[in-house]
Amino acid sequence: MISMAKPQIGQEEIDAVTKVMQSGMIASGPVVTEFEKEFAEYIGMPHAVATSNGTTALHAALLGLNIGEGDKVLTTPFTFIASSNSILFNRAIPVFIDIDPNSFLIDLDKLEAHLNENNDGSIKAILVVHLFGLACDMPRLMEIAQKYNLKVIEDCAQSHGAEVKGQKAGSFGDAACFSFYPTKNMTTSEGGISLFRDQETAELSRKYVNHGRVDQYKHDVLGFNYRMTNICAAIGLEQLKKLPSMNERRRTNAAVYNEQLRNNEFVKTPVVEEGFKHVYHQYTVVLEGVNRSDVQALLSENDIGSAVVYPFSMTEQAFYADKSECKDDVNARELSRKVLSLPVHPGLEEQDILKVCEVLNSIGK
After folding, report:
1. Beta bridge mates, 96
2. Cβ neighbours of residue 352 under 8 Å, at least 6 residues apart?
3. How do strand 283-287 and strand 339-342 relate by DSSP bridges?
């Protein structure tokens, strides 16, 4: 079976976990501190707060930036629900801006137009999602944010190591959040991290992650238990060493797809503009003129996994009807009916990718 995901866990991770368990210090401690330092240096941000998962990282970052009740946060409707849920956790309001049909990322033209039309001071931040391993045009987004005095939070759950003009995703905004779930480009089993440009913001976020604690039994804000464990951090330190090579393998696999599928009239491959380094958390294609369920069934018959990421726009979540705003998400809705993600993880061999392409190229024949 050619699977959609396979965590690349080796003896190094097993030995690191064993060492932590033998130490007796298995909860949050010095290994977490070391992981925070190493990951922050890798991305290029000065401060880091490790968390229990990517969702808590987002929540903690927004808390640290004082995003609160009634504040509006511009974000994308085409992503996992954790991105916009983190805004709701803070009693703020997600404002969904449609996506660019070529990149699947928030459309910066539409974002700027919305700001021009709604410049009443209620919009406080932009939560940008770097989707599928491709980073948004952050230099332009930061110019927009500075023009309107908005905070920027980068959701990098799918973009560990992605770059824009040589600068890593997660190093542009006021805060950046990563997930280390097992399917991500690197894992800690479960875990997340928030990165910050400002020390005071990072310290406030750390307080929220650890029960609002300022001393062992002294607390001055209502906090949470969002801490990462030394066990998870030990895995993360070893995974971080492997991340560049694992990302290159993903990029190599994607290049094979690009070449083999370039003449397939039914499969539109990802578009990557010059200056952007895609790290392919997902290799997501757009199907045209063919039924997606039929394609998935064909792949399954040949022992090939696939996934629909994501099957509908966030605005179609009934729960969000009275908790969010959206003027236009036509691209997000249309693409959600056409996208299909294919196996691209670093555990695949070239022959696996060639098999997937052979099956896809048999469509219509």
Report:
1. 75, 326
2. 2, 343
3. antiparallel
For the segment 98-117, the average pLDDT, to the nearest whole number, is: 98
CATH of domain 243-360: 3.90.1150.10
* pTM, two decimal places: 0.98
**pLDDT tens digit sequence for 53-70:** 999 999 999 999 999 999
Name, in order, each residue with C-beta under 8 angstroms of 154's C-beta and a sequence gap of 6 or more: 128, 130, 138, 169, 170, 172, 173, 175, 176, 177
Tokens coding 316:
């179609």
- pLDDT tens-place string over residues 221-243: 999 999 999 999 999 999 999 99
Contact 13, 239 (CB under 8 A): yes
SS3 category, 352: helix
CA distance 56 to 62: 10
In total, the chain counts a number of residues equal to 365
Q: What fold, for 11-239?
A: Aspartate Aminotransferase; domain 2 (3.40.640)
Question: What average pLDDT does range 245-271 have in this prediction?
Answer: 98
Q: Which residue has the tokens 């009916």?
A: 337
Q: How far is the first Cα of the chain from the last one, in angstroms, to the nearest whole number?
A: 24
Distance CA 323, CA 91 (A): 9
Domain ranges of the chain: 11-239, 243-360
The residue among 128, 60, 61, 132 whose CA lies nearest residue 97 is 128
Q: What integer pLDDT is reported at residue 27 of this predicted model?
A: 97
| Distance of alpha carbon 331 from alpha carbon 107, whole angstroms | 10
Q: Could you tell me the pLDDT band of residue 172, with boundaries at 50, 70 and 90?
A: very high
Q: What are phi and psi of 69, to 5 degrees?
A: -55, 125
Whether the link from the prior residue into 226 is cis, omega within 30° of 0, is: no
